[in-house]
Specification:
The chain is an all-alpha fold and 394 residues long. The protein contains 15 helices and no strands.
């Protein structure tokens, strides 16, 4: 444990870290909140094809993957606090630029990609600080819950901005939000810890990635991907049961709001029981939930299955990040893993579309069950040896 974290911090949360983490996770959910609106509006306003519109909306997630390759260089040459403040400012500038060039496909794709890199670095560096902090599992749960709760508000806010000025309005709103985030991070950066025991990020040992780390990161990506298959088509499933768009959106919004409690529950369970058994249980609940929801013949049964399925998704995310952080005493693996794991949301939409086109909506619960079984095998492989820092200890 880094001495920079303080000698008496084992029994308390660190508010500046909670604030910075919440901002980073809200940045990630901002991309998710904008995605459905951008896909629809790019087609309506600029005449983009659906595939091009989907690519433009998915580019931030691809940029997030690219940011993981940038992390080792940042570890060696830039402190985590400086990287967070700098890339948060860069994200605001990218979104402002997108407001000017959204009608030019090449430029908006580039702008979205660069925004994804900035957001990925912000989330990764924050995850690194949390991973080596006191009460890491619970802190991941808190900041993830804040991000999930904020997403519902951002969806409504971006909807209003699109009504106001189309795509320009959406990107301007995103730029203003990110500028606020950057200002807050700049104000609190000196209160944030650095994750290096020696206090000099240039003297840290090279990061060694073994097969266990690869298994954990792969498991995280696959879990987000396969647990998100049904998520991509839950509105369609609700419509097939006779629900209107308004009814479906309202009911699913309530489920999403309630499921935010899964973030805190996941963090607590990881701290109390370690990561293996909570994740196994969540994999089973996720598979059963989507099987019930997507085979439902009534609205009540659909919502009955949807609730635990989405709860399991929210439950696992902080556990996955804490588990990745436990494999590296300086939190660098958590920094690399966070944006890669989040990319599963983009792959879920792509894979779900392919499966539905080929075999219909009924294929999704079977694919989800197979994916959860694969995740369980990777979890077993990745946790066969004790990690350097036992989950739940400070």
């Amino acid at each position: 444990m880094s001495e920079a974290l303080g000698r008496d911090g084992a029994k308390r949360f660190e508010f500046p870290l909670l604030l910075a983490g919440s901002i980073a996770f809200m940045t990630s959910t901002m991309f998710s909140a904008m995605k459905p609106l951008l896909i629809t509006r790019f087609v309506e306003q600029t005449g983009y094809s659906p595939s091009l519109a989907g690519l433009a909306a998915a580019m931030p997630f691809i940029g997030g993957i690219a940011s993981s390759f940038l992390m080792p260089w940042l570890f060696r040459h830039v402190g985590a606090r400086s990287a967070m403040a700098g890339f948060a400012t860069g994200l605001a500038l990218c979104e402002a630029g997108n407001a000017l060039v959204f009608a030019v496909p090449v430029l908006v794709l580039l702008g979205q990609f660069l925004a994804g890199i900035c957001g990925g670095v912000l989330m990764g560096m924050t995850s690194r600080l949390i991973a080596v902090s006191n009460r890491a599992e619970q802190t991941f749960g808190v900041v993830d819950m804040v991000g999930v709760l904020a997403m519902s508000a951002m969806i409504a806010g971006f909807g209003v901005s699109v009504e106001w000025d189309g795509l320009r309005g959406a990107f301007c709103a995103a730029a203003a939000l990110c500028a606020l985030f950057a200002a807050i991070l700049q104000a609190c950066r000196t209160a944030l810890p650095e994750p290096h025991a020696a206090g000099d990020h240039r003297q840290t040992a090279p990061l060694a990635l073994d097969w266990r780390a690869a298994a954990i990161v792969a498991m995280g990506v696959l879990f987000i991907t396969f647990s998100g298959l049904g998520f991509a088509f839950m509105i369609t499933a609700a419509r097939n049961l006779g629900m209107s768009y308004e009814e479906a959106s309202s009911a699913i919004g309530i489920v999403l709001f309630v499921s935010a409690a899964g973030c805190l529950t996941g963090g607590w369970c990881a701290a109390r029981f370690g990561p293996r058994m909570p994740l196994f249980a969540a994999f089973v609940v996720c598979a059963l939930g989507w099987s019930i929801a997507l085979h439902a013949t009534s609205r009540e049964v659909f919502l009955l299955g949807l609730t635990p399925a989405i709860f399991a998704l929210q439950f696992c995310f902080p556990v996955l990040l804490a588990l990745a952080g436990s494999l590296d005493s300086e939190g660098r693996l958590a920094a690399i893993a966070a944006p890669i794991i989040v990319s599963g949301f983009a792959w879920a939409a792509i894979l779900a579309g392919l499966l539905v086109d080929r075999w219909g909506l009924g294929s999704l619960p079977y694919a989800t069950t197979a994916g959860m079984a694969l995740c369980a095998l990777l979890l077993l492989a990745g946790t066969t040896q004790p990690s350097r820092r036992e989950p739940g200890t400070a």
